[in-house]
Amino acid sequence: MSYQVVDIAVGVSLHKTFHYLVPEELRGLLIPGSRVLVPFGNRRIIGTVVGFPAKTEAKSLKHVIESAGSPIPPDLFTLACWMADYYLYPLGQTLESVVPKALARAKPKKKKFIRLLTHPVSESIRGKKQAELARLLSGRDEVSIEELGAYSSQTIKALCAAEIAEIVEREEPDSASEPFVPGNPPALMPAQAEAVRRITEASSDGTFSAFLLHGVTGSGKTEVYLHAITALSGTGKGAIVLVPEIALTPQLLGRFKQRFGSRVAVLHSRQTDRERADEYRRILTGRVDVAIGARSAVFAPFEKIGLIIVDEEHENSYKQDDGLRYHARDTA
Q1: Residues forming beta bridges with residue 238, ordered by sequence position
Q2: Which residues, at least 6 apart from 311, have a Cβ–Cβ distance to it below 8 Å?
Q3: pTM, to two decimals
Q4: Is 181:260 a contact under the CB 8 Å cutoff?
Q5: What is the distance between the terminal CA atoms of the chain, rounded to a whole angstrom?
Q6: Residues 6 or more apart whose Cβ sits within 8 Å of residue 128
Q7: CA spacing 20 to 30 A to 80: which of 21, 121, 178, 329?
Q8: What is the strand order of the sheet 143-144 is part of?
Q9: What is the pLDDT of residues 197-233, one digit of tens each?
Q10: Which residues have a Cβ under 8 Å from the Cβ of 60 and sit 6 or more positions away?
Q11: Cα–Cα distance between 88 and 84 in angstroms, integer?
Q12: Distance between CA atoms of 36 and 49, rounded to whole angstroms?
């Protein structure tokens, strides 16, 4: 009898990983970084696939229960492995630190729509309200359930039960429905323009470079950030902006939203589980170009990163002082 064994890191304070059997329905689907639900002692917890051992004893091994959401992106997975080694912290707990804890639990927000299944509308419709609703739907591809306040849930269910219409669910899109058109940015001073030129040239080369941007408060560093990020437009690369304190996030966020509209995500520890998971998914699905937040925003899951800005990089708040004790600047 053939079997496949997978090596999994779980979020416990042990410097080791654990072997599990892969159920037949998941064979060939798991990769390093895949999130899975596994039995652990008398609990069921989420772990991360870290490899596939060539040889192991299959007797007494427990089975993976099921997949648990999107895999950790490859670059972020590699970063977490480096951090676990560099900061001497258990790999399972390190991997948990780079993704929102609620990601597997907090499901994406979904919106319900109703659409006709039969054209023209069947004569078997019973009731005045059902007929009205059917006529409304006949002129449109689909209608949001939220728009149907004049119709009771019983009317909607009856139309679906008669197989005249059906309800579909889709992940709720961003609230901004129209493309954002930014205003004209202010002209740069010579020193700002030179800084933007050098940063932009380095980011377009595709190789790693680091710059120290020095300037007193009010000297225009933020405008340099904005111009350097704008230069990434059309490249498919995202930008991460770290701030030393959560309290500074709203101030900076206002300026970035004036320039980039809804394509800005916010990540910080004061968000609810749902909020953090939703922002994380927006980045994963390519609906965001810029992520702003405190030190944990360094884990924003962009497929390609063009620029990471660590504002006031000398601040001690970039050092995590419990759990995974990392320095956000060095990690960036």
Answers
A1: 305
A2: 221, 225, 241, 242, 243, 244, 248, 252
A3: 0.78
A4: no
A5: 46
A6: none
A7: 21
A8: 143-144, 110-116, 165-171
A9: 999 999 888 788 999 999 888 889 999 999 999 999 8
A10: none
A11: 5
A12: 7
